[in-house]
Amino acid sequence: MACVDFKELQEKLSTQFRPWQRSFQFWARAADIYAGYKVFQVRVSFEKDVEKAEVMWERHHEHAADKLYSMCYDMGGFFLKVAQVVGKPDLAPAAWVRKLVTLCDQAPKTPSNVVRLLLEKELGKSIEEMFERFEWDPIGSASIAQVHRARLKGDKKDVVVKVQHPGVQDLMMTDLRNLQALALCLQKTDLKFDLFSVCKEMEKQIGYEFDFTREALAMDRIRNFLSENNKKMLVKVPRVIRDVVTRRVLVMEYIDGIPILNLKDEIMKRGINPDGKIAVAAKQNILKSLSLAYGQMILKSGFFHADPHPGNIIICKGSQVALLDYGQVKELPNSLRLGYANLILAIADNDHIKASEGLRELGINTLSLCDNEKEELFKLAQVMFDTKLPPGVKMLQPYAEDATLKKVAVQAFPEELFSVLRTVHLLRGLSVGLGLNYSCAEEWRPIAEEALYHSGRLKDENLKSRNRRRRRFLRRSSGWRK
């Protein structure tokens, strides 16, 4: 008995100290990476040859990428989500992207005996009673849950069973609090952006992900919305199997396809030139379907899937896109939805004055650190809320000397807009990864106009005038560039 009590005490102490151990591990590694960059900035400043300096930066990015990869891989959990956000082709250094993009589905797997216990406890039946077939080796494991392919008793089609990792919620909340503290440090020193508000919104959004009943309702709502607003579904949304959903288990239809990250390999496997006309047309259709679906969700409904990273996108037959994982969804208040529609029109129209007014309407408070304030505010609006990269630019570098964030400080950023910001940036990352450069503002212009018209903020005569201007614009530009 004493032995049992000692083991229980040992387990309790281990559980209590785990957050402290995890926090120490995070700060030790984060400080090492940060200090490495600060020391290197001083060292590289003595190199006057631009080309040599670029080579030095690339080597340092590779060195830092190894450290960041090790931290995210070893710690898992929330840091796999950090890797998804940071490892985008339009934002992070190329060396980081090459490393971090491989972390999408590398979360530790929950053992099959634990999965069995959790499923039987949640659903109240044995696996054999519920399923005709159950594949114990998961087809994917992410930070919060893992997914198994199976077939329900009496059914002819396969399903996907999503099972939450036990005990993951407490660890992720610890990680988020550490990240909030780091955000406060960074925004006071290196990056003039309200990162703390962004982290607070992440905390709220990720908290929702642990309730799979909420995810099932979100999936149904978005599926119905896209079906009602389009003759042909822009993107496939899995159908929820209603009788087998709990807070920690979600069963949905299985959709066959290939991950978007494997698209280039699949095109080459079929003997098609990945840079040829057929491949480019397919990639344009994929990106256009995704972009229009998001434009409708954000601007027309205000309720949208807020996690379009590559691991959640698969390509089905005929280049149709399927969008998976509805743990992160967001509902914008009407004021923000319509304010964003207004900003989209300002960006699409290249209207600097309306763009700066639109930023203020959304509650984005800025402090100008330059003379050409209106021009830099417009660039800020583009950088934050449009997917198009400036001519000749292959990726955005927020830390560069001539970066907009060095000229305009973002002092306050509404938490609720972070999901829009993140979604636009992930769409931009996908477009860069596919070798395309397009403007979601130009693509979403008609949807924004419709939203403002139905709200009474855009009158008939203004809409007709805008439509004439848009037709002239479309005659001059194809809108999509390789």
UniProtKB/TrEMBL annotation:
<feature type="domain" description="Protein kinase">
    <location>
        <begin position="133"/>
        <end position="457"/>
    </location>
</feature>
<dbReference type="InterPro" id="IPR051130">
    <property type="entry name" value="Mito_struct-func_regulator"/>
</dbReference>
<dbReference type="Pfam" id="PF03109">
    <property type="entry name" value="ABC1"/>
</dbReference>
<dbReference type="InterPro" id="IPR004147">
    <property type="entry name" value="ABC1_dom"/>
</dbReference>
<dbReference type="InterPro" id="IPR011009">
    <property type="entry name" value="Kinase-like_dom_sf"/>
</dbReference>
<dbReference type="GO" id="GO:0005524">
    <property type="term" value="F:ATP binding"/>
</dbReference>
<dbReference type="InterPro" id="IPR000719">
    <property type="entry name" value="Prot_kinase_dom"/>
</dbReference>
<dbReference type="GO" id="GO:0004672">
    <property type="term" value="F:protein kinase activity"/>
</dbReference>
<protein>
    <recommendedName>
        <fullName>Protein kinase domain-containing protein</fullName>
    </recommendedName>
</protein>
